[in-house]
Design goal:
single chain; 173 residues; Chitosanase, subunit A, domain 1; 64% helix
């Protein structure tokens, strides 16, 4: 639902921060979590002028998040799960977010969110699922063997968990 997107986007933008161009980050030049490559492709596809992602209009950044990471799945997910999946899709890509979601549900991990995954999601206890998904994500981050980024990823994972649980209570941090 639109209200959940606005809340989730606020959380993601806080975690993603501003501009970054760390040579050890595979994403390269990034602004507010959107890479230069992704920004250029979105602008071409939407017939918008492109340029340096660091100077991208906020409306473009928000549209990319909604079109490429929130839609079409998150509006159909339970509150809290919509945000925790969205954040992981932003952080590691939609396919990896889906694989980890399926792993947390105890399903075959094919990366496709089809009827079996959706049914399991809607049958899950949301609080318990958020806890499991948080643990699965932490294990994923540790498996990447990138010590420079691990502490930040694990801190983000804890923040996302707290934010997702706060959404269940109708609040936001």
């Amino acid at each position: 639902m639109e209200q959940n997107f606005a809340t989730a986007l606020k959380f993601v933008l806080t975690d993603e921060g501003g501009n970054d161009d760390d040579p050890q980050d595979h994403g390269g030049r990034t602004s507010r979590g959107i890479t230069q490559r992704e920004f250029d492709a979105w602008c071409r596809e939407n017939h918008k002028p492109n340029g340096d992602v660091w100077h991208a209009p906020q409306s473009y950044i928000e549209a990319i998040y909604q079109e490429e990471y929130w839609q079409p799945l998150c509006d159909d997910f339970p509150t809290g799960i919509d945000y925790i999946y969205f954040d992981m899709a932003v952080n590691a890509g939609p396919h990896q977010a889906a694989v980890l979601l399926q792993r947390a549900l105890g399903l075959t991990t094919d990366g496709r969110i089809g009827p079996i995954t959706r049914q399991a999601l809607h049958s899950a206890d949301v609080r318990s699922f958020i806890e499991r998904y948080t643990l699965v994500k932490a294990n994923f981050y540790k498996s990447l063997h990138q010590p420079k980024f691990l502490k930040g990823w694990l801190n983000r994972d804890r923040d996302v968990r707290a934010n997702a649980l706060s959404m269940l209570n109708g609040g936001s941090k």
